[in-house]
Every structure is written in structure tokens, then in C-alpha cells.
Specification:
Helix content is 36%, strand content 19%. With 468 residues, it is of the alpha+beta class. The protein has four domains: 86 residues, Uridine Diphospho-n-acetylenolpyruvylglucosamine Reductase, domain 2 (2-Layer Sandwich); 119 residues, Uridine Diphospho-n-acetylenolpyruvylglucosamine Reductase, domain 3 (2-Layer Sandwich); 110 residues, 2-Layer Sandwich (Alpha-Beta Plaits); 96 residues, Alpha-Beta Plaits, CATH 3.30.70.2740. Strands 12, 13, 14, 15, 16, 17, 18 and 19 form an eight-stranded antiparallel β-sheet that branches. Helix 1 runs antiparallel to helix 3. It is globular. The two termini are 21 Å apart.
Length: 468
């Protein structure tokens, strides 16, 4: 646990206002676990400065006293990186101003603690689109999304967070400020330093503000839901639709029968799109004005027997209801007991074989396991979630977590995929880093960390924990 000297606390209270420090354990509690209750942490102090200047002073003070820091945005991360284990907790919630919006350049500069939803809403007022949309967007922050290089449903069309970051302001582990905010699209003057911070999970410094690329708000979107027999057909549907609508496809989400069934069972007011349940479903969103061309494309897919059924939302309310079926899967799994979750990506062509092979191996060893598979199929990103069999205890299933996860990640690796597609490493996947990253990759990453944070002040337990 961080030991705070009187000298440190006295200097700190001269830097921030009293309401920017939390030391009361009850107030700290919500910041010490994540929403699924998988990781619990501890700290004696959280500091929430409301400006970059104050934040830089805090980091400088921590560096002087060799006090480690864990950074926390909206606390929606899924790999435990934001949960302190004794470090000083540095929150960005009070840094939530819009510094500039430039509709002509289609950019916005915001502070790191703004929620994704708040940025979306402000952009919408200017008829502009902030394209990163994730189900946690009401709480997840810009800083957190950049630090985790968040993905979500729109990656197929707009790319992940990395694709939207034009410039950054960061506080370095020694307390210096890097003023790298820029709306430039072209700047080849040496290393592109912002890239280092995107996906760094808070290990290289604190992101305090960002200049982000915006897009024109689509005039119209059309949402369709298709029922399919298998994943091969889902991939064929993707090719078929991309041939006609390539960049106009803004979401292409796979939902297995099991994933849909937990939503229908556990989320009130959910309605099945079809009377018959299909082994797989795909939700597609098109940025297209003319519904007739979509009807035609889906009719073609029906007659080619790529899909077994299809429905197109006739109103925004219907589109929202379809989207909710997909977005509620994460929450709907909770009442089903223990879950072992994997956030993986694979080359598209390998996905059917992966699913088939994995199901055989897991069903053989862990009879009755339920395969709650869903994800951003257009990006090859699956949330490969396994729910306990109804007749085993949750503890018994979770006891096999490491064994099951190694089986899943080994096959992903063998097939050229990634064991950490969009949620990052945090503390959850440190062992996987050692297992699957090559010595060359690990050495390069360690060299970067050592060069920028030689005293290991920033998020010291993640990515490069001692046992690495
Ligand atoms: C229901 C739900 C749905 C989700 N869906 C998606 C999805 O579709 N795609 C996806 O990619 N993720 C998803 N996530 C995961 C999560 O929302 C994202 O990782 C999000 O970007 C985290 O933002 P945050 O502000 O909550 O960060 P936190 O959880 O607070 O922190 C996450 C990591 O970033 C670091 N960090 C936070 N702020 C800063 C900063 N300013 N500077 C430096 N480091 C910082 C933390 O130390 C930690 O390592 C989902 C989560 C939930 C709960």
C-alpha cells in the first residue's frame, strides 16, 4: 500500500482543492472494483485534479516521492488496469471541458475525462459524428478509450480509437507536459509519438486532452437483422454486402443463438426478431438512404440461401431495439452464473474452423458448457464467452479458467490471431503476454517503457509486471 508522508500530503494539499482529494474509504470503494466484480483493489487516496497544470504537479510530486500511480477514467475497463493495488489513484473525472470544436476541419479538442457519450452529443449539435460507439460510452472516457485503443461496433467503417486521434496532450511520468495537440493530418517530423500512448493502458503517462477526427453525421441509417444457419454464411453475407455497399456498412455484428437467448431471457422488454431461433444472427447497419437497395440485397442473399430470414427496422425505435439486443449481451450473461470470457481476433477465413474445433474440444472436456459467442465479425473480433453448464457449480467451472483460456488462446495464436483484440492486457493477460509475444516484441516494449518511465511510476503492475 502506498505510504504517504506528511511532507507529501502537505505539498499535495497545496496543489489541489480539498474536493479533489478522496481519502474516505467509503467514497473510495466504487473506484476499487470494476463493474463485473472480477477485480478488487485498494488504495488510501484518490486525487481528481481539474486541470492539466494540477495533474502535472501531482505526477511530479509522486515522481519525487517515488509513489506509484494508477490512472482511472470511467472505470469501465475489462482487464483490471484501472484498479489500484495500493498505488495512488489518479482520476480524470473533473477534466471534462471541450477546448475547441472546429466544424470546418471536423475536429474537436476535449479533455480526457469527458465521457464518450458527452462528446457524441456535443458533436451531434454541430451535425458531426464522433464515431467511437461502445455500450459503456455513458461512463467510459476519452482518456480511457485512447489508453485502451477502444474498438466497438463502428470499427469496420471508421476504425478504432487510434484512427480518430490527431493529437494528444500528455503528462509524462516525471511531471513534464507534452503539448502534442494538433489537428494535422500530415506531420512526418520524426517518430509519431502520440501512437505510443494509444493503447498504452496508462503505463507511459497520463493522457490529459486529445484532438479527435470527426465525420459528417450520416443523414440516414438502416438497420437489418438476419438469421443464419452457420458462421460460414455470415462471412458470405459480409462479402455479398461489402461488394455492394463497402464503406456504407457501419456495423456488422455476429450474435449466436445462445447469446441472443440470454438477452431474451434476462433483459425485460426484449423481443425476438423472428419466431424461429437461428444458430447465428447478424445485425447490420448501413449508412444508406434508399431502403429499397437494402431490401434488394437481402432478397438476393435469401434466394442464394446465404441467410434464412431477414427483417429491416422500419423506424428508429425498431432500430434501437435491434441494437439493444446486441448491446445487452454483456449484461445479460450475469444472471447465468460463471462466465469465462475471451476477447480475441482471428483472420476472417479462420473463424469457422476455430469455432468448430474449439467447441469440440471444450464440450468434450467440460460437458454442457454454453457457448455465448458474439462480436464484431466484420473486424474478425469475437467475444468468445463460455457460460457454465447449468448442472455444475460456478466455482467448479471457474477453477478450470486458466486451462480453458490457455486452450482458447493457444488455438487463436496457432491460427494467427490475437488474444487481446480490443480490451487490452491490464492485469488479466500478463501471462499471455509472456506466452504469446515474441522476445523481440517484448524487448521493444520494455525498452519503450524503460525510456519513458524508468522509475516505473505509471501503472506499474500492468503489461510489464515484475514476473514478466
Ligand atoms: C458494457 C461494456 C461494454 C464495452 N464495450 C466495449 C467495446 O465494444 N469495445 C471496447 O474496446 N471496449 C469496450 N468496453 C471496455 C471499456 O469500456 C473500454 O476499454 C473503455 O475505453 C475504457 O474507458 P474508461 O474511461 O472506463 O477507462 P478505465 O476503465 O478507467 O481505464 C482503462 C485503462 O486505461 C487507463 N487510463 C484511463 N484513463 C487514462 C488517461 N487519461 N491516461 C492514461 N491512461 C488512462 C487506465 O489506467 C486503465 O489501464 C466495454 C466495457 C463495458 C463495461
Amino acid at each position: 500500500m502506498v505510504k504517504l508522508s506528511t511532507d507529501f500530503l502537505e505539498t499535495l494539499s497545496g496543489v489541489v482543492d480539498p474536493d479533489e482529494i478522496i481519502q474516505d474509504q467509503e467514497e473510495l470503494t466504487p473506484h476499487l472494483s470494476e463493474w463485473r466484480g472480477r477485480w478488487f483493489g485498494e488504495t488510501t487516496i484518490m486525487v481528481l485534479p481539474n486541470s492539466t497544470k494540477k495533474l502535472a504537479k501531482i505526477v511530479k510530486l509522486c515522481a519525487k516521492h517515488q509513489i506509484a500511480i494508477t490512472c482511472q477514467g470511467g472505470n469501465t475497463g475489462l482487464v483490471g488496469g484501472q484498479i489500484p493495488q495500493g498505488e495512488l489513484l489518479l482520476g480524470t473525472a473533473k477534466m471534462n471541458a471541450v477546448r475547441n470544436i472546429d466544424p470546418k476541419a471536423m475536429t474537436i479538442t476535449v479533455e480526457a475525462g469527458m465521457s464518450l457519450q458527452a462528446v457524441t452529443d456535443i458533436c451531434a449539435e454541430h451535425n458531426l459524428l464522433f464515431a467511437l460507439q461502445i455500450a459503456s460510452g455513458g461512463s467510459a472516457t476519452i482518456g480511457g478509450a485512447i489508453a485502451t485503443n477502444a474498438g466497438g461496433m463502428g470499427v469496420l467503417r471508421y476504425g478504432n480509437m487510434r484512427a480518430m486521434v490527431l493529437g494528444l496532450e500528455t503528462v509524462m511520468p516525471n511531471g513534464e507536459v507534452w503539448h502534442g495537440l494538433s489537428g494535422l493530418h500530415k506531420d512526418n517530423s520524426g517518430y509519431d509519438l502520440k501512437q505510443l500512448f494509444i493503447g498504452s493502458e496508462g503505463t507511459l503517462g497520463v493522457i490529459t486532452a486529445a484532438t479527435l477526427q470527426l465525420f459528417p453525421k450520416p443523414a440516414n441509417t438502416i438497420t437489418a437483422w438476419c438469421g443464419l444457419q452457420n458462421v460460414e454464411d455470415a462471412l458470405q453475407l459480409l462479402s455479398h454486402l461489402r461488394a455492394n455497399f463497402f464503406s456504407q456498412i457501419s456495423k456488422f455484428e455476429l450474435i449466436s443463438k445462445q447469446a441472443l437467448s440470454v438477452v431474451l431471457k434476462n433483459v425485460s422488454n426484449s423481443r425476438a426478431p423472428f419466431s424461429e431461433a437461428h444458430d447465428y444472427n447478424v445485425m447490420v447497419e448501413f449508412e444508406v438512404d434508399d431502403v429499397l437497395v437494402i431490401e434488394e440485397a437481402l432478397a438476393d442473399a435469401l434466394s442464394a440461401e446465404i441467410i434464412a430470414d431477414a427483417v429491416i427496422a422500419k423506424s428508429q425505435a425498431e432500430a434501437n431495439a435491434l441494437l439493444a439486443l446486441r448491446e445487452n449481451i454483456s449484461a445479460a450473461q450475469k444472471p447465468e452464473g460463471a462466465a469465462i470470457k475471451h476477447d480475441i481476433s482471428l483472420p476472417l477465413s479462420a473463424i469457422p474452423q476455430f469455432l468448430q474445433q474449439m467447441q469440440m474440444v471444450i464440450s468434450d472436456k467440460f460437458l454442457g458448457t454454453r457457448f455465448c459467442v458474439f462480436g464484431h465479425l466484420g473486424d474478425g473480433n469475437l467475444h468468445y464467452n463460455l457460460l457454465q453448464a447449468v448442472d455444475v457449480s460456478g466455482d467448479e467451472f471457474l477453477f478450470a479458467r486458466d486451462q480453458i483460456t490457455s486452450m482458447v488462446h493457444d488455438l487463436v495464436h496457432e491460427m494467427g490471431g490475437s488474444f487481446a483484440a480490443e480490451h487490452g492486457i491490464g492485469i488479466a493477460k500478463i501471462d499471455d503476454m509472456r506466452r504469446y509475444k515474441s522476445p523481440v516484441e517484448l524487448a521493444m516494449m520494455r525498452a519503450v517503457k524503460q525510456a519513458i518511465d524508468p522509475d516505473n511510476i505509471m501503472n506499474p503492475r500492468i503489461l510489464f509486471a515484475q514476473k514478466n
